[in-house]
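So, could you explain the following?
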Amino acid sequence: MSTPEREPLMRSEAEEAEDHYWERLYGEYDCLDPAGMADFFAGFERPWWVVGGWAIEAFTGAPREHEDVDVSILTCDVPALRAHVGTSWQLWNIANGALRPLIDRWPDVQDPESQIWARRDPGSPWVFDMPLTPDRDGLWTNKKLPDHVAKVEEVTWVADDGIRYLNPEIVLMYKSRLDRVKDNRDLDRAWPLLDQPARDWLREAVARLHPDHPWLAQMA
């Protein structure tokens, strides 16, 4: 059986321009895929999970193109991540456009909701983007809905590939703030596959965050 082809990226000129802007500032990206991230995290004893488009693809089974791979960990686990990579990788923390190395001089992230990028060395491309997830006493927290606090196991699921992914309804909630063709396509594909509790949760979350969002008509 042949493998379904991935659809081409659907990106606006503004999105392309933004990517080129950051690439000129910080260098190229050559991202890993989820399997590559599993290799990266081999032996890491704290939870990690895939978010964004790869999480939607894992849920729907429909191949899609990806600009990068987004993974997350709890912010409280950053020290464990530093210990895990040792000197094999360079970890950098980016917050509000400011990029700073995660080294002994600056061991803490600039903001609990910031991101971590990784590369082998200064001449190598960045391989992943890690939006951190602030924790509350070791629990996962929703960055958009502060009253949504849960165990990591309750907001993620493990696919047949053994990789943990963020629940699709939560991925779509985060995507709802963006007005991109690919996000609308992700909703179109994932919505029919969501169970009723997940649909109800997503509908309520989007209504709270974006009362006039066009997705609400589709989810009625």
Summary: The longest strand covers residues 90-95. The mean pLDDT is 92.
